[in-house]
Write a structure and sequence with these properties.
Distance between the termini of chain A: 39 Å
Strand order of the largest sheet of chain A: 5-4-3-6-10
Structural class of chain A: alpha/beta
Number of strands of chain A: 15
CATH architecture of the largest domain in chain A: 2-Layer Sandwich
Helix content of chain A: 25-40%
Largest sheet of chain A: 5 strands, mixed
Oligomer: homodimer
């Protein structure tokens, strides 16, 4: 970083005093001489709450500085509950109480990050449109902050954006500054890292690669109102319908059943998988020509689709991209698996303290310690 | 900028001493009190050479700091000449001699920017692939630098990237941090500004929106080898072919003839224009969902297409984009017209001096003054 020794000593001592890092002796390196101290984040002492609001499932985790999972909980979300933002916020606040009850003495919650399936305005976290939840213009972050009563900022973002952030920082995209992340769920979400930063666009609605039009003339109708979106041709519903199954009975298991049938040689399932893979290849090819990424990462249910149909996807990409745009390209599956979105929500929760550690740490302790039995 | 008065005085005096800016009395404002001096770039004294290498036309300009055209020349490029990078470089060096012969005493050339129709590696300006020129892996910038003999850097980039930069800094995209620029030429090039910066991707090949696949199943074959690229459905060749004209007789005039015929009510031309506009709308819709831009700008021949077919383009965009993604969106045509690419090449030429004015100015004068009659 071009900083001299005394500058670094000063910075480390400020961070140590604030309780964010600790200096430790390194493990024996086998080399002679006095070993340098190693600076590590105090994951046990400084943490965030990360929430993943799925369409039929809620997940929460307490995640320490550095990305370590300290605690987690999860529950199903019923159709009735999901339509009410206040109910969803109450369920998440319940998770928070539960997880904060077991924290170590003196530990501090420094942020809250929430992932949602919808379009979120970046400036204030307003949930503009979350069709699967039935939400329009919901100030969900403010409602959750009110119910948590913790006087720390609650940040909200789109789940695929956070997935991209997570894979970029701690998963299959580590070390790459240009990353396209495709997240298959009920729909297909996307997140794009451009020059090391999340692509948000003017208001935060960027990266909606699931609504790229791949089949405008005779494509399936999409939930967004358009025809032939990538999500309508290569999403869960399209796979299930093409395999002759109920397209509404979505979920990881339904997708797994089709993939497993295809691997057993079931011709209908095989044709469905190939059809969906070809459309996925078309969409991915366009994204490669547009973004010239180092890596494209398939996450959520697209992980399984890619693992069993990599050959047709690669073949379509090879036919439909510029040679130079793919010469340094890697195609990968998410390495964080089901945790991708929670890890991204945690990174969002940490964003304030990482931007300005000493200013942020000042206002964090107090309030939630009331809820903690450990003093 | 949060700088205090004495810091600004110091900076301005450094820049004045380096000959980059001058302080002047403002025009009479009609207000009482001593007027503050106005700092202006010395456009007449500090300039770059900008080159636009078209497929059938070469253009060059001497452009002063601040974007002012000081001189220009242009000539046709024959089929035989365009295949030889050394010949093209010699023609450009001839333009340079001509323009440098009329410079003011003491004026300085601080950079050279070149726009090319092709994929250019950002790290070193290597022209990886320029199909219309027949070039593969040509170190054109180095060859031009050799022939210019001016010991200043020669920067090379893709013409649509530079068009995007120009419209962003001095045209229809001023004030917008998220801009999609579509440039119609023989093909369709694109340049995207994300958060105020040009999208380049890993190696500089990003922004190739003309090769987004819009019609994978029964689309036209594209020069890049793929099927159904936006450029193959909505480019010059597609318009001319759909209008029953010779798709190889390309050029602004040929496009103008089809648009004029459509405006006179020629049904074949009208149908061709609508067909192309619909594909342009499909591609643009996908880009809006992906980038959530403030503004989409149509340049080159797409300027004329948009001006006479805005309604069908808007209609397709309205049907195929997410509501929230287009709520603050403007659709515009290029305001720099035929100069867009040259203005962008000039900005590229100025990039070193803008990044570090005082370091850059040191190595610039001498060599080319030999070529100038004014001492």
């Amino acid at each position: 970083m071009g900083l001299n020794r005394s500058t670094i000593l000063g910075l480390v001592s400020d961070l140590t005093e604030a309780g964010l890092v600790a200096e430790e002796l390194p493990r024996d390196t086998g080399r002679a001489g006095r070993p340098s101290l190693v600076v590590r984040p105090r994951s046990d002492q400084v943490y965030v709450l990360a929430f993943d609001v799925g369409v039929d499932r809620l997940a929460a985790a307490r995640i320490g500085l550095g990305g370590q999972f300290l605690d987690r909980c999860e529950s199903a979300l019923t159709l009735d509950d999901r339509h009410e933002p206040t109910v969803v916020a109450r369920l998440l606040a319940g998770f928070a109480d539960q997880m904060l009850g077991t924290t170590e003495a003196g530990s501090r919650c420094v942020g809250v990050g929430v992932a949602l399936r919808g379009l979120v305005r970046h400036a204030d976290g307003l949930v503009r449109y979350a069709p699967n939840m039935g939400w329009t213009d919901q100030a969900f972050g403010a409602e959750l902050a009110r119910q948590l009563g913790m006087s720390i900022p609650v940040r909200v973002d789109n789940e695929a954006n956070l997935g991209a952030l997570a894979e970029h920082m701690r998963g299959a995209g580590v070390g790459a500054d240009n990353v396209v992340y495709l997240h298959g769920d009920i729909g297909i979400g996307g997140g794009v890292i451009v020059d090391g930063r999340l692509l948000r666009g003017r208001d935060g609605y960027g990266g909606e690669v699931g609504h790229m039009i791949v089949n405008p003339r005779d494509g399936n109708h999409c939930g967004c109102g358009a025809q032939g979106c990538l999500e309508a041709e290569a999403g869960e519903g399209a796979l299930l319908a093409a395999a002759g199954r109920d397209p509404r009975a979505t979920g990881q298991e339904a997708v797994h059943a089709v993939v497993a049938a295809a691997e057993r040689g079931d011709t209908v399932a095989l044709a469905a998988l190939h059809r969906v893979s070809d459309w996925l290849g078309v969409g991915t090819a366009s994204l490669i020509n547009i973004f010239n990424p180092s890596v494209v990462i398939f996450g959520g249910i697209l992980r399984e689709v890619f693992l069993s149909a990599a050959a047709p996807i690669r073949s379509r990409i090879n036919r439909s991209t510029l040679d130079v745009a793919r010469e340094s390209l890697r195609l990968r599956v998410s390495t964080l698996g089901d945790d991708t979105v929670l890890v991204g929500a945690a990174e969002l929760g940490f964003s304030d303290i990482l931007a300005d550690p000493l200013a942020t740490i000042a206002y964090t302790p107090r309030k939630h310690l009331r809820q903690s039995p450990v003093r």
